[in-house]
């Protein structure tokens, strides 16, 4: 069941207040990837202020954000702009606005957390395998599936790959921590 | 006392909407001691006041309770009305059945019952009221003006011209303030110094003005009409009377490396110097931290050059005392520190703008000096790093202002106009140059102000971009300004030769200190508080102390001057009477009961309690007791609460009255 | 001195060259690392983006372990880990109710008493002067562009160790060791961090800008203190060159690499040969 496309949902997910923004545009001015955005960060904030959550969540710009937090750090009104974009990405996935290529960011993050839940620590190879598989099932893109495949041997040659990851002893505990955090209403 | 009249007001609908006024009046008539009870739709109106006056006379009332609004609104009105009917005004009490009742309650029956209770309490009090007379205090007709900027100058001249002596105290070596450093002024573009310096000279020559420069207020004692002020005159190391201001000394001084305060560090000055050519007084001063003789015991070239024998290396700070009747505070402003190193490698404020790191990022006051004919470049706009004429200049608004995270939440009010002026001055001097302004909103409310901004855009071709700048970096000697034009919806990067930051206005340093000395409140930013934002804009809550200019809040020259004249008018009004009248509701010590513990004296926030000696007929000291200075006491009641022997009481709010009020609610 | 050590997933994974470097370098300075027993992942960006409670709980578990084992200070060389740990610590320290809730979730009493620091802070604690005295080699041939990226200085309220716009701590250390760090403009611009897998185009573009600006300001190498920055600027440098027809040949060192070299350690001992771009 996707969450409501309401300002309340966004603000709760992001722990940020949208009305504090006075549209100075400093977020957009400092954003390192602003040239790639169809809506500038301040315009996304404006859409939220106008209650047009769907337009904001369906914007391609939210998938360009690299979470560098420059916007949040320099915001004169201390609005967590990066956090709001995080929230929009979640809503976008839940409501099916995101294209397969865009979904990859969240798919990767979900695969990452899933990996942690099972292993306690990141098992890189397993993560790559899982992420690639899920991505392939999602968009059936063969080039995407085999991209970076050549890096494998290179990493191996540099002894940077561990075929068998070192796992945490008490993996059940990690599972319990995840279960408790997810039981509190937060996702995933 | 048993002939009390109660007058309940409808206040149009304000009270009557939620309170059954008729019923209140009927119930009030039944209260013990009440002779009559009346209502009126507007008790404060002429017919309402006439009703009060006529009833007092007809019923021979000896006490009045008005049930209406807050005493802040109309206590004076009703006391005047009673006085006209030959009733002592201090026999009038008010019950606030509007702000404290009808406005804040919605249930009519309960609001009505509460209104009756409020009247009951007021009636109980007024039964114990005594007739009081206002306190009279003498006035010293002399004014202290603190701060010699344009506001202080205006106030001092207005007062002095009316024949009242003025003591003008200025911290810097010259009067003139920030305005003396400006090039041209908006919205007329007339030369700042051309309009200010004649006024400065007038101050210097005025027979009614005593000018103390390099001076600060050290101590303020006394009270309205009777202040005693101690002024610290810093050692100037110059005999001002002997010196002719010829300039031989500063032309010869070998210590030339001190950044000039007047040029905001863009130029250098000598150790013996006048801050600028038109300085008043036109006498130099020696910087004790830069002078080779005073720091290392060497040199003394100035002594040899001075033909008037005016150099005094043994000069000392001097304390001067003045008896003063009223004080005007006009200490002005300083700029927000844009990038201030915190001593641990970090920069507070705007690290992202590179101020202090890149020499070509300057403040708007620094830009004024670059444009000014008396400035370090002789009025040619040349950038600090290499002296090149900048072909692209970026002006940034709201640096510090309206920035809760880094600076101050308020708008500094003048920067929009300053930026527009700067783009014009720039264009008038560098014809092939391009000015850009980054702004959030354009605030140009004022006579001919918006027209001025439009002229900058339409005639002088300034490019205005709505958006804040995020970062400034330096590449190949140019400043890369990363901003945004939110109206176009596009990020905007400009390679500039010079960047000018319009930094926020803050109160001058030390203003809190001064405010505490004169008992004036200040806000979280240090701006001094007026008594009422609309109706008493230059008065303060400290009687006899007035404010004007930017120490009270960001404002431009016209507004500062207006306020200065207003403050002067208020002072002259105060001086128009022989004696001052103060409300008599102050503390009073019953000296026969006072144990002399002086707990009251230690706790009095107004320093209004002094020890007094009781002597017998032979002049032998019997004991010491506390005595209230009626000029200083504000009637706060702290001493009453603390007095163990119950020998202090407050006129108009005696313990007897207060207990009767509480009792009446049983 | 001895200090708690939280390697984090990256240093135990493909960034094991960083771990070699940190261990070798700190050992040479007499700092003993006591690895946190049975540590778990800090949750990184994923937890922060997807589940705020998890973003506190995962680092909190590690803080709890450190407190249980009596560690006064915990080194996390990966800035993602150190930032998450610092942030959780601040939140727990300020909020009793959260402290109790999280303690129940992670099955350990967590108070937030253990200090967390990043690699630069450890060097600061050892003292730049002491490091300089221990150095046997001058780094005169190095003109590094010190790259801090996002997480070493952001959010400034959490990490609080250097100026967030113009950090200088790496420059001061390397200057002490004879290197000549360059002033440049991309010190704190993002490299794309965790987007390497999901959004490669962005990572390549950002990396290209960073490498170009460093070269334009005369740098002959980059210095980082973050495994993700190293991946994006070193491992991905070939891809950047391919995408932008560029000829970047910028060696990317970890800070501990250069300090280690100054201390006379062999490149192999520091894991330098495992980098993708190597000095010719």
Give a structural overview.
The complex is a heterotrimer of chains A (188), B (666) and C (280). Chain A is mainly α. In chain A, 57% of the residues lie in helices and 0% in strands. Chain A contains eleven helices and no strands. Chain A has helices at 7-14, 26-30, 41-49, 53-57, 70-74, 81-94, 100-119, 124-139, 142-146, 151-157, 171-183. Chain A is globular. In chain B, a hairpin with an 8-residue loop joins strand 13 (258-259) and strand 14. Chain C contains 14 helices and seven strands. A four-stranded parallel sheet of chain C has the order 2-1-3-4, sandwiched between helices. In chain C, strands 5-6-7 form a three-stranded parallel sheet. The longest helix of chain C is centred in the N-terminal third of the chain and has 17 residues, at 52-68. Chain C starts with a strand and ends in an 18-residue tail after the last helix. At the A-C interface, helix 5, helix 6, helix 7, helix 8 and helix 10 of A face helix 3, helix 4, helix 6 and helix 11 of C.
Concise account of the structure shown:
Chain A has 188 residues and is mainly α.
Keywords:
heterotrimer, B: 666 residues, alpha/beta, Rossmann fold, FAD/NAD(P)-binding domain, 5 domains, five-stranded parallel β-sheet, 36 strands, 27% helix, globular, C: 280 residues, Glutathione S-transferase Yfyf (Class Pi), Chain A, domain 2, 2 domains, four-stranded parallel β-sheet, three-stranded parallel β-sheet
């Amino acid at each position: 069941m996707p969450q409501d496309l309401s300002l309340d949902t966004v603000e709760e997910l992001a722990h940020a207040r949208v009305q504090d923004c006075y549209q100075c545009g400093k977020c957009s001015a400092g954003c390192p990837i602003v040239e790639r955005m169809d809506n500038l960060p301040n315009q996304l904030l404006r859409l939220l202020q106008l209650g047009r959550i769907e337009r904001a969540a369906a914007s391609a710009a939210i998938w360009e954000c690299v979470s560098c937090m420059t916007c949040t750090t320099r915001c004169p009104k201390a609005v967590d702009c990066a956090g709001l974009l995080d929230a929009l990405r979640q809503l976008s996935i839940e409501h099916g606005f995101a294209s397969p290529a865009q979904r990859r960011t969240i798919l990767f993050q979900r695969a990452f957390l899933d990996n942690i839940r099972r292993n306690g620590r990141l098992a890189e190879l397993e993560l790559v395998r899982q992420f690639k598989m899920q991505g392939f099932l999602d968009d059936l893109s063969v080039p995407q599936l085999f991209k970076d495949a050549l890096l494998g041997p290179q990493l191996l040659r540099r002894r940077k790959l561990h075929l068998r990851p070192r796992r945490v002893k008490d993996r059940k505990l990690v599972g319990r921590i995840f279960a408790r955090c997810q039981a509190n209403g937060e996702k995933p | 006392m048993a002939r009390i009249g109660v007058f309940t007001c409808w206040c149009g609908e304000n009270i009557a909407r939620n309170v059954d006024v008729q019923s209140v009046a009927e119930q009030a008539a039944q209260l013990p001691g009440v002779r009559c009870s009346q209502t009126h739709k507007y008790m404060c109106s002429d017919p309402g006041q006439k009703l009060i006056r006529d009833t007092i006379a007809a019923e021979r009332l000896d006490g009045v309770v008005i049930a209406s609004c807050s005493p802040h609104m109309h206590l004076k009105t009703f006391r005047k009305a009673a006085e006209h009917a030959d009733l002592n005004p201090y026999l009038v009490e008010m019950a606030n059945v509007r702000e404290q009742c009808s406005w804040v309650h919605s249930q009519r029956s309960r609001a009505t019952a509460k209104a009756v209770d409020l009247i009951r309490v007021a009636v109980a009090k007024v039964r114990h009221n005594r007739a009081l007379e206002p306190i009279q205090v003498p006035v010293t007709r002399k004014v202290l003006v603190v701060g010699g900027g344009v506001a202080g100058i205006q106030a001092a001249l207005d007062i002095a011209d009316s024949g009242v002596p003025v003591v003008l105290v200025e911290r810097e070596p010259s009067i003139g303030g920030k305005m003396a450093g400006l090039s041209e002024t908006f919205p007329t573009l007339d030369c700042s110094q051309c309009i200010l310096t004649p006024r400065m000279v007038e101050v210097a020559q005025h027979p009614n003005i005593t000018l103390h420069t390099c001076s600060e207020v050290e101590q303020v004692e006394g009270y309205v009409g009777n202040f005693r002020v101690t002024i610290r005159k810093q050692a100037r190391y110059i005999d001002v009377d002997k010196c002719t201001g010829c300039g031989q000394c500063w032309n010869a001084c070998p210590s030339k490396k001190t950044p000039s305060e007047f040029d905001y560090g863009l130029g250098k000055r000598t150790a013996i110097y006048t801050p600028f050519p038109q300085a008043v007084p036109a006498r130099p001063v020696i910087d004790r931290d830069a002078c080779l003789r005073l720091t290392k015991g060497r040199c003394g070239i100035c002594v040899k050059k001075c033909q008037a024998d005016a150099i005094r290396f043994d000069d000392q700070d001097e304390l001067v005392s003045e008896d003063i009747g009223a004080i005007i505070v006009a200490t002005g402003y300083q700029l927000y520190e844009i990038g201030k190193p915190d001593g641990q490698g970090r920069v507070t404020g705007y690290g992202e703008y590179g101020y202090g790191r890149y020499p070509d990022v300057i403040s708007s006051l620094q830009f004024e000096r670059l444009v000014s004919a008396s400035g370090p470049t002789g009025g040619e706009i040349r950038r600090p790093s290499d002296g090149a004429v900048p072909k692209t200049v970026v002006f940034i608004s709201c640096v510090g202002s309206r920035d809760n995270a880094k600076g101050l939440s308020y708008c500094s009010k003048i920067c929009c106009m300053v930026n527009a002026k700067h783009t014009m001055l720039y264009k008038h001097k560098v014809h092939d140059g391009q000015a850009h302004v980054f702004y959030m909103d354009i605030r140009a409310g004022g006579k001919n102000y918006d027209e001025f901004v439009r002229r900058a855009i339409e005639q002088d071709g300034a490019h205005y971009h709505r958006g804040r700048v995020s970062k400034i970096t330096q590449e190949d000697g140019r400043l890369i300004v990363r901003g945004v034009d939110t109206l176009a919806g596009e990020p905007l990067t400009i390679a500039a030769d010079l960047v000018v930051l319009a930094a926020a206005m803050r109160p001058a340093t030390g203003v809190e200190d001064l405010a505490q000395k004169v008992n004036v409140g200040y806000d979280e930013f240090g701006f001094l508080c007026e008594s009422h934002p609309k109706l008493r804009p230059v008065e303060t809550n400290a009687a006899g102390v007035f404010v004007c200019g930017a120490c009270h809040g960001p404002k431009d020259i016209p507004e500062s001057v207006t306020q200065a004249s207003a403050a002067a008018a208020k002072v002259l009004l105060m001086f128009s009477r022989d004696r001052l009248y103060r409300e008599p509701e102050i503390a009073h010590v019953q000296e026969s009961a006072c144990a002399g513990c002086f707990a009251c004296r230690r706790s009095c926030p107004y320093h209004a309690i002094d020890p007094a000696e009781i002597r017998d007929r032979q002049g032998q000291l019997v004991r010491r007791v506390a005595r209230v200075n009626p000029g200083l006491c504000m009637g706060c009641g702290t001493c009453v609460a603390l007095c163990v022997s119950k020998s202090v009481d407050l006129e108009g709010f005696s313990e007897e009255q207060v207990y009767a009020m509480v009792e009446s609610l049983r | 001195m001895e200090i708690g050590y939280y390697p984090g997933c990256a240093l135990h994974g493909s960034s094991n060259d960083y771990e070699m470097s940190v261990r070798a370098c700190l050992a040479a300075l007499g700092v003993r690392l006591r690895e946190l027993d049975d540590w778990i992942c800090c949750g990184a960006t994923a937890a922060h983006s997807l589940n705020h409670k998890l973003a506190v709980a995962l680092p909190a578990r590690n803080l709890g372990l450190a407190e249980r084992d009596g560690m006064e200070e915990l080194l996390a060389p990966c800035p993602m880990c150190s930032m998450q740990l610092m942030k959780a610590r601040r939140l727990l320290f300020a909020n009793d109710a959260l402290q109790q809730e999280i303690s129940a979730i992670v099955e350990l009493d967590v108070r937030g008493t253990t200090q967390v620091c990043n690699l630069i802070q450890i060097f600061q604690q050892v003292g730049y002067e002491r490091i300089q005295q221990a150095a046997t080699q001058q780094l005169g041939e190095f003109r590094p562009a010190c790259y801090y990226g996002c997480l070493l200085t952001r959010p400034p309220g959490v990490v609080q160790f250097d100026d967030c716009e113009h950090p200088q701590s790496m420059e001061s250390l390397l200057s002490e060791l004879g290197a000549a760090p360059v002033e440049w403009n991309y010190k704190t611009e993002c490299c794309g961090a965790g987007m390497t897998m999901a959004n490669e185009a962005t990572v390549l573009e950002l990396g290209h800008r960073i490498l170009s600006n460093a070269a334009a300001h005369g740098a002959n190498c980059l210095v980082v203190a973050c495994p993700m920055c190293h991946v994006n600027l070193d491992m991905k440098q070939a891809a950047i060159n391919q995408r932008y027809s560029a000829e970047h040949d910028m060696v990317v060192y970890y800070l501990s690499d250069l300090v280690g070299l100054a201390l006379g350690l062999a490149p192999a001992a520091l894991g330098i040969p495992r980098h993708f771009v190597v000095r010719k």
